[in-house]
Amino acid sequence: MRLKKYSDGRIPLIILLIIIYTHQFYEHKNNKTLEENHRYTIGNVYEHKYLSRGGSKIYFSYNYDGVRYSSSTTVDSKEFLHKNYFIKFNPEKPTHCEILLDKIIPKHIVAPIKGWKTKPRIVKKKIS
Question: Per DSSP, what are the bridge partners of residue 59?
């Protein structure tokens, strides 16, 4: 008779809510950590895939302290492929990063091995 008491779906619902809460807490903690402790480097978008449920995902890589890292994010366009962008990352946990897709970085600009403490201002070269 006890099994019937919990067969109305409350247990799976409670487990699902705990999973969602834990995920949200972890994401909030990571975002806060990234805002408090970050550096910048340059990364390259090397792959684009369409998702089965719609939308797209881009894959990018970047170097920090001689190690290559890769990550991905969802986007709504294929226009980012094979271009360089700033990457904001946590130097204590370099896999925790965010790609900044607001500005394409010219290929001739190279990031320092340890990245920058502040995002550099990119000035376009004048052609004489």
Answer: 47, 72
